[in-house]
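To close the chapter, one final illustration. This time we ask the reader to focus less on the individual chains and more on the assembly as a whole: which components sit near each other, and how the overall shape emerges from the parts.
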Amino acid sequence: AQTVTQSQPEMSVQEAETVTLSCTYDTSESDYYLFWYKQPPSRQMILVIRQEAYKQQNATENRFSVNFQKAAKSFSLKISDSQLGDAAMYFCAPLFGNEKLTFGTGTRLTIIP
Amino acid sequence: EAGVTQSPTHLIKTRGQQATLRCSPISGHTSVYWYQQALGLGLQFLLWYDEGEERNRGNFPPRFSGRQFPNYSSELNVNALELEDSALYLCASSYGTDWDTQYFGPGTRLTVL
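The assembled structure is written out below.
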């Protein structure tokens, strides 16, 4: 079975500081994609960043970057220069070969002004 | 470019009734996915439709069903509603190619009384 673990139910960070959210997963597949989504209080699920498992280079999207370690099956999200608008629930979601996203339990991120 | 749209925003039903939820994908997208976000159960994959066909199904009873229309919009039907069906139902769409990014709509909040 493919599982996703987000071990930090809640995190908080001071505005303008950097925070890292962790995610580990288990799969026997070698080809897959990994996503981070955020869900603010509006409940709209918004794509943050995407990583192809065959790429060694870590994905970056403005203030958001990932640390992808395939052998360790780890996919953490780093948010730099945190802003108040970053406050949300963050979900790690691998996409394995069956075209369905497998979501972790989420990490609630609070930004402290 | 218009995003994924879902209707209605909120739906209130009583136990035993049927609910119909609707989703319109992003223009050009042929795949539609349904996920259930229930309190305490996290996000779970329900159904995947592509080119009018059901391609994959999550671990849900047969009273959860749906279809995809020629214009790629989709309906999710839930028959014989139970209290535990109360949840946020999220629809996502993609181009339908392997590993494609799924973009989510705002969701339909279903409440079963």
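Chain A has no helices and eleven strands. Residues 35 and 50 of chain A are 5 Å apart (CA to CA). With these observations in hand, you are ready for the problems at the end of the chapter.
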